[in-house]
Amino acid sequence: MERTFLIRHPSVMIFIALLALFTLGATILSEGFGIGLISTSFVKTLGKTLCLCLVAIAMDLVWGYCGILSLGHFAFFGLGGYMIGMWLMYERTKGIVVDQLAAAQLPPTPEEVREAIGAQIFGVVGGSEIPTIWMFADSLIIQLALVVLVPGLLALVFGWLAFRSRVTGVYLSILTQAMTLALSLYLFQNDSGLRGNNGLSGLQNIPGAENISQDVVSVWFLWASALALGAGYLLAAWLVAGKFGNVVRGIRDDEARVRFLGYNVEAYKLVVFTLTAVIAGIAGALYYPQAGIINPAEIAPIASIYLAVWVAIGGRGRLYGAVIGAALVSLLSTWFTSGRAPDIPLGFYTIEWVDWWLVLLGFGFVLVTLFAPQGLGGLVDRLVRNPRAARPQPARPPQSAKEPA
Amino acid sequence: MSSLLEVAGVSVAFDGFKAINDLSFEIGAAELRAIIGPNGAGKTTFMDIVTGKTRPDSGRVDYGEPPASLLRMSESEIARAGIGRKFQRPTVFEQQSVRDNLTMALDNARDPLSVVFYRPFATDMDRVAELAREIGLADQLNRMAGELAHGQKQWLEIGMLLAQDPKLLLVDEPAAGMTLDEREHTTDLLKRAAETRAVIVVEHDMEFVRRLNCKVTVLHEGSVLAEGSIDHVTGHQQVIDVYLGR
Fold it and tell me: Residue A362 belongs to what domain range?
């Protein structure tokens, strides 16, 4: 069945092949496994970009296909990062603490170890108690489960409340944004149990792999991210190719009609919202070990708005569009804001890209909206379909594509 | 004859305006019925009530055998119970093919999990082909619904209703904007559908109603003004006053 699915959807096969080629190429050029032409920090940037592409696919499913402009999916992304970050930080600190205490004459009791870990991690927010939410932080299995469960359950409860009240359109967007803002404000508090605005750090150090160089670890994560992106893309493509995709697109285009066909629209929205929140959580759990640090600012509403901008630039309702948008815009953003882009001296004024990048992005967004309303992915569509444009002309000009929201 | 749908003493007001006022209405299991009335007579509100979009302030809406109240059911539950609705302007999924439109409407399991694992088996595809033939779109299955002509969209929507295999069909102004030929085709479709199920047609166009050749209910200010054959109601003095002779 999978094979016939791939044959009927060549774009999926092309994407998987390109992704594999890209990963292989990056590995060959990396310092860890190859000829060392690209730095380890750039390998990490590439790996992080793949994670951003994955969350963009989630955003495309929920917005481009189902018509729900969620401004909360980067919050789910961040929650996934926090969940894996707790294990990484706890176990790493435990390793350090045990080493330190090993010098003492008496072997440390488990209580002493716990206290020392608490002081290490929470000293920065003026505490030494390990909060209750860290109770499973020593178990990788449970924290991995939480990567999926925490964003999933939050999306399930939030979505259930919002959809059953028939909140739609811009009101739903505002509601999701409020959720995101509330979550990030809560995490900024020192007594939230997640180190307030310090966030979790040192996440690039993998417990149990301390002796392995970051050159190697970075390539592992690149592969893991590529695998997750490939799997996520396959799942999303398979979902939208079938009848489920038709129903979901139907909900986007005419919710009432789908309802009168007998479909429980709210249940479908809830499934899509929750599933994409889970995908976002997984993407976040792969992203933050490569970033090394997570703090509440990552979850701020602006991040979710960027996510929507990526998908809009890339092209809604096209999975590869979301990938193109996320990869292009996030890589450009990294380049412009890291100071690598040459400033432009105009004599009376110097354009510094760190400040002007957002202006450029906004300008680009306007250009795409005006000249490629289907996004960059829509341009790809036009290039690919042009040779066989001999489709029967419509009896009447088709109504211009209805833009959801 | 036992009735399929019984609406009794239903009233609904919007901001004090009584859109439906103590309306009572019945239709049998295999019957074609036309509902006519001037603008604001409550025709669309009546459909909204039956399909669950609007909740009445008072009254009873019973459906099926044994009769069950529709007032506690959601729109999608009512649709699954066998009541299909065609909107006034053609609402088909324009960015999907005719085949996908019809497949989505087929009478299959509608919960997300079943739909995710749905495979278009031959029996379903045969049914889609048969429906397409019935509505005159057999050679258009692969076209985008948005590319169809206005009349074809109306038929596609009727086809989608038939695909649901409903017991009761509510059709809002099917002939609006159609050419004479298209109207004849539509009349045939509706008449054929009514051989095995109940069909309620809301229509403005008196000529079209005459062609349907069925019992007519005249609504006025939210309640039934007259009921009977087309000749009976067009001869009815009050009907002439409020509607025909306006």
Answer: 2-341+351-386
